[in-house]
Specification:
The chain is mainly beta and 189 residues long. Helices cover 10% and strands 34% of the residues. It has a single domain, classed as Hexapeptide repeat proteins (UDP N-Acetylglucosamine Acyltransferase, domain 1).
């Protein structure tokens, strides 16, 4: 039976730095630097996603369709985090001031690309269409509503929304207990 996901043997041949067990990756996802990508256990990457650069994915992660991870300066997604459809993470950005040229086809000496690692900590979720800018840390349990622009660090266990994202209300933590139950029952698999 043909599925839209790679078979285990095919995944091993894609050249990832490392890949865990129970990984589902769409044949329609693109990886521009698989040798720089680490994938944990129980990870699903859906159709039309692009992953490029230094990327570390923990376990129990879902990256929904049309999401883009541009990790030239690094992206880390910890366990139980996820991206809703059309979410984009940028770890670097061009300087649009006009003092430099812009674009990946321009030699580096004429550009001023800056950035830093994006960190999505445990139990974080980004709503559909959200955008995260370079050097941002989403602390444990923080989430965003749809179409939010995250341009600064988010505090742990709060719900954010808007452009730019602002704190809306505190988030409950029952899911920590559920994660423990899940891990005991399924041994983390």
């Amino acid at each position: 039976m043909k599925t839209s996901f790679y078979k285990k043997e095919e995944l091993e041949g894609l050249g990832f730095r490392s890949i865990g067990i129970n990984v589902l990756i769409s044949r329609n996802a693109n990886f521009y630097t698989p040798e720089k990508i680490t994938i944990g256990n129980n990870v699903r990457i859906d159709d039309f996603c692009i992953l490029s650069g230094e990327i570390t994915l923990g376990s129990n992660i879902h990256i929904s369709a049309h999401s883009m991870l541009y990790g030239s300066k690094g992206i880390i997604m910890e366990d139980y985090s996820g991206l809703s459809p059309r979410t984009t993470l940028f770890s670097a950005s061009d300087d649009f001031s006009g003092d430099f040229m812009v674009g990946s086809m321009v030699p580096q000496e004429f550009t001023n690309v800056r950035g830093g690692v994006v960190i999505i900590k445990k139990f974080c979720q980004l709503g559909a269409g959200s955008i995260v800018l370079p050097k941002v840390v989403l602390e444990e349990g923080s989430v965003t509503g749809a179409m939010s622009l995250v341009n600064k660090n988010l505090e742990p266990w709060y719900i954010y929304a808007g452009i730019p994202a602002v704190k809306i209300k505190e988030r409950k933590k029952k899911l920590i207990e559920l994660a423990r139950e899940y891990e005991q029952k399924y041994n983390g698999i």
